[in-house]
Amino acid sequence: MGFKDFIQLEEDIQQIAVLSRKVPEEHALIRLILSALATTEELENLVKKDIRKFEREGINYYSVRLTAAGKTRIAPIDPTTYNVLVEITRDKSGRQRIFSYSPTDMDNIIRKYSPRYRKYDAKSLRDAVSKILRDCMFFDDEDYVRDLLEGENFEKVTDFLYDFHPLFSGMWDLDDDDVAEDFIATFSRRTGISDPEEIARIIGEDVERVKGLMRLTDLTWK
Q: Rounded CA gap, 139 and 17, in Å?
């Protein structure tokens, strides 16, 4: 896969992550696929008590316990994903399932936020993130994606994800103005939408912030 293909993948994934923010449950679902490479079966089985934050040697770790076909793994998640999960499960009991979606529902949610000409589902979105992460591994004896999927070497996998995973570094979110500015410019270019109010509505962002960021990149609108 060439460099341009990876850029396209990253732009596609960031769009799916950003556009889903307006529906917290759907956003949480997508963030778990992105951060933990969760499968639809693992997401179906996820309950509130599977979400965990703990400290080890002064470092905070965030994780989910994922179960499918009788096999359980502990996967790192980024702090934002943890916070979204805590928020949507605030009124749930510990043993209550977090999501009520079927696998078909999950695929449809992801398609809804996908770019117009490239529709993703749960599996293809998961595969896209795997490709990006595998491209970041420099040595043949390292396979942090395999370790993530097997629930092994938790701390080393966590370090790898913070170093190379765009969700863990904030590059697939809009908290940072530079990241948000680049995303809005890319989204406008890809969709042909230049009206800041429409962009703000689609991405679930404050209109005045969008207007300010568009001015920084000299984007014009009607």
A: 29
